[in-house]
Amino acid sequence: MGKTRLEAFSDGVLAIIITIMVLELKVPHGDTLGTLAPLIPAFLSYVLSFVYIGIYWNNHHHMLHTVTHVTAPIMWANLHLLFWLSLFPLVTGWMGENHFASLPTAVYGFVLLSAAIAYWLLQQAIIAAQGESSVLLRAVGRDWKGKLSPVLYSLAIVLTFFASWVSQLVFVFAALLWRIPDRRIEYVLKHDA
Predict the structure, then answer these.
(1) Which of 23, 136, 144, 153 would staple 66 via disulfide (CB 3.0–4.6 Å)?
(2) For 113, which DSSP code?
(3) Is 131 left (phi over 0), alpha (psi -120 to 50) or beta?
(4) Which domain holds residue 98?
(5) pLDDT in tens, 16-55
């Protein structure tokens, strides 16, 4: 299978995830600004998840540029990542509807942690398929952001049972780390050309 089919499938799934998330936002009944107030937690939860999906989409796109041929392990690792990302609408809605209560926030953190691990596994499957001269391996190097993110998500999961708002700050901080697509891949591809 060519990588364009894998990219198209992944892009379609991510577009559906975003669509489902926005459809989970409830339409307010009323025509005043006051009717919007109860929607603020759900909307903030949506914005955070939308940013995370955007981050995954951007970095996934850059990572797949290094793929020369798609192997079965790459396909399964990609599906594994998409599985965890497909849970975003559920955990986003649950966390927002319950005003960032501890358990929904912890489950949201668990899904973020699982998606980060799944992304790393996809990265490793691509590196394994590329062998000794892996473009992706040269691009990611020591991958400090990839190693720090699971630590942050794990910390946020624990912190949510003490102060849920601190967990939210950790989630936002982790998203800010990844807000710019990984330029290392672009740099290596440009210099290899």
Answers:
(1) 136
(2) H
(3) left
(4) 3-192
(5) 999 999 999 988 888 888 999 989 999 999 999 999 999 9
